[in-house]
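Hi support team,

I submitted a single chain yesterday and got back a structure, but I'm not sure I'm reading the token output correctly. Could someone confirm the output below corresponds to the sequence I sent? I've pasted both exactly as they appear in my results page.

Thanks,
R.
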Amino acid sequence: MDVSKLFSVEGKVALVTGGSRGIGLMIARGFVLAGARVYIASRKADVCEEVAAELSKVGTCHALPADLATGDGTRALAAAVKEREEALHVLVNNAGANWGAPIEEFPDSAWDKVLALNVKNVFRLTVELLGPLRAASRSGDPARVINIGSIDGLGAPLLETYAYSASKAAVHHLTRHLARRLAPEITVNAVAPGPFESKMMEATLEQFGDSIRGSNPLKRIGEPEDMAGVALYLASRAGAYLTGAVIPVDGGSSNLR
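Hi R., thanks for writing in. Yes, this is the structure output for that exact sequence:
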């Protein structure tokens, strides 16, 4: 056993959706620094290109702007990946949306938007990329799909984000379903983050940050290394025998209440 290469992703090809900010950027940067060839996708082309250029200073990163809220956008992203790569070792389904509103005012449009991007897109993009994922699979080193769920999908959150929490619970179950169907060539696991510094969490942390830190068993919120670390584990030989799992990365807040 070569322990020095156990967590290596050097030379692997990875796609990270929503990779220009927040948790997606944390994962993309970790892969780039570890020697993977990384593609990041996000809706805003200028931001996507800017972030890819910045990450390319320390490794290899390419921008593939795409609007994953639509079926056409999802298919276009998959086509762009297949034009550039025969094999895709790692797919990180991170792109997502949130919506908060009081229960009496929660609109149908919120359900349509959030479920389409957070759940349907995860399924559709994975299916569209099964060819290059299977092409990357090797005995003992399958291709990997990493879905980004949330601790809000593990328990009922305090905030009124009904579509978001329901969508993340769906992502966790979809992960298990896909894991059963795609084994042994492809593993499918989910990460359920707790609070991390991100645009989605910005307002919540401004208002409740001290309380969130105080109630967390580890007395802090997540840092980029925490998210990069679990993604590298799942994408490397170290995580090759894990599939269908939902891993909370939350300082113990969902398990140690």
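A quick pointer for reading it: Residues 108-128 form the longest helix (21 residues). Let us know if anything else looks off.

Best,
Support desk
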